[in-house]
Amino acid sequence: MGLAQEATFYDHAPVLLPAEQQLLGKTLIVAPHQDDESLGCGGIIYLLKQMDIPVHVVFVTDGSKSHPNSKKYPFEKLVSLRENESVEALAILGVGKNDITFLRLQDGRLPTAEAPDFQDAVNAFKSVLNHFEPKTIFTPWQRDPHPDHRATWQIVNQAVQAAPYAIRKFEYFIWLWERAGSDDLPVAGEGKIWKVDIEIAQDYKKTAVEAYLSQTTSLIDDDPEGFTLSPEVLAHFDNRFEIFLER
Predict the structure, then answer these.
(1) Count of beta carbons in the 10 Å neighbourhood of residue 204
(2) What is the secondary structure of 24-35 as a DSSP string?
(3) How far apart (Å, rounded) are the C-alpha atoms in residues 166 and 168?
(4) How many CB atoms lie within 10 A of CB 202?
């Protein structure tokens, strides 16, 4: 369905001003796949780094299912490519290699709360959480229309609930803009919607997204089932505001 057919839920959302952004403190960005962080949070990452606020990015999956049938880029080469792309993208946004963690869980098969290996995934994420000790976490929207994104939310939520201190939690939207059904949208009372003005970060964000050649170009051209972000999808993320929901 997509949001083009729905009334936008963020029309009257307040802007999270720079002084309020500084209060976010140490921030952990959780991305299911290599590119989600730049698409959903590239602007706020850049802004926080300009304020000298520590930012750590954790990638949950290995990204191996974007081109599963490529002979030119078999499993290990594809995983390496996508990780290298993420390092390059995040360098553009101001995040160094030492502030990136790759959990390398299986792309396309992240466990949800009902799965027997769910707690293993939670424990893997907890190791990052306990080491970095963030004040704020950004994670995919709870009902984002991609199973890995929903599973990531469940993994993070379980870990945060067990944390010995309070953590602010924001959710970002990726596939909601293209694939949302009416039941996927935020409803009143679920949280507070914020806009973040990323005008000064917009070019950096766009350049970071473009660093993902495997996802935005025909670099991998030998897999008819391969995934590429279309210009229409990319257009949703090339604008002045990023939208978040705070719980």
Answers:
(1) 22
(2) T-SEEEEESSTT
(3) 7
(4) 19
Plot region of 104 (φ>0 → left; ψ -120 to 50 → alpha; else → beta): left
With tokens 């299911």, the residue in question is 32
State the greatest distance between any 2 C-alpha atoms of the chain, in Å, as a whole number: 50
Residue of 167, 114, 133, 139 whose CA lies nearest to 60: 139
Q: Structural domains in the chain?
A: 3-246 (3.40.50.10320)
Per-position pLDDT tens, the chain of length 247: 455 444 488 989 999 999 999 999 999 999 999 999 999 999 999 999 999 999 999 999 999 999 999 999 999 999 999 999 999 999 999 999 999 999 999 999 999 999 999 999 999 999 999 999 999 999 999 999 999 999 999 999 999 999 999 999 999 999 998 888 889 999 888 999 999 999 999 999 999 999 999 999 999 999 999 999 999 999 999 999 999 999 9
